[in-house]
Design goal:
The chain is mostly helical and 278 residues long. The radius of gyration is 23 Å and the shape is globular. The chain has 13 helices and no strands.
Amino acid sequence: MKIKVTGRLFLRFLLILIVTAFFVYPFWWMIVNSLNTSAQVFGKPTFLPVSWRWENYKEIFQIQPFGRHLFNSILVALVGTFGNILVSAFSGYAFARLRFPGRQVLFILLLTALMMPIEVIIIPLFFQMRDWGFNDSLKPLMLIPIFGAQGAFSAFMFRQFFITIPKELEEAARLDGLGSFGIFWRIMLPIAGPVISATAILAFLAAWNTYLEPLVFTSSLNNFTLPLSLNNFNDVYGQPQWNLQMAATTVSILPIMLVYLFFQEKVTDAMVNSGLKG
């Protein structure tokens, strides 16, 4: 099938290409300078690396335990994401389909968590985690994505999705002898695939990119996550080694970028479908 190229179509394609270039160039600049020396980072911009220093990617694992930091980020993101989905799915179903005293009040309190930045509650959280013996560990970084603002957002998305399910489906399941838990586990959860995918990706991204929480709750080098690790590539004078930071940032961005690009349609679909009813 031939596509007729008109002037309007060409201009639209050209505009998209220009806008795309503005977004892609910073990422390409980072990759190029991850293969240069630190001095060449501030030299004349080039489309390709000048030095092709592949050893930069080897050095980031030698200067500090970058591999351990990468593992910590993956562990925190996976555990936080799984717990986020499990807890928010239960709470979203309860708010959408169950009737219990104080439901509306609790839902309003849940919504207030969406408007509560982590900077406001970080000090009380620090003392709470200290009393539990969780400071200088990865446990707070796993719990906050589950019970913090990200968890409240996921619960809101599940609630908005579950209230769109026809009541007849739930009534038919009760006639077959299923209780509330059986309806949730065997009927509601399997059909909530788009919301599960969207909340999983958003929770994973939030846990992966978090900086303030690791800064507050961890102090040992082995417990650092990637956002803290990226700040540790300095020379003997305390000056940043920009080429190594670029290399480390490239390694930390590529996996999450690939996951997001693969699942971005599910995120969009869930965002649209979850906001249809209130």
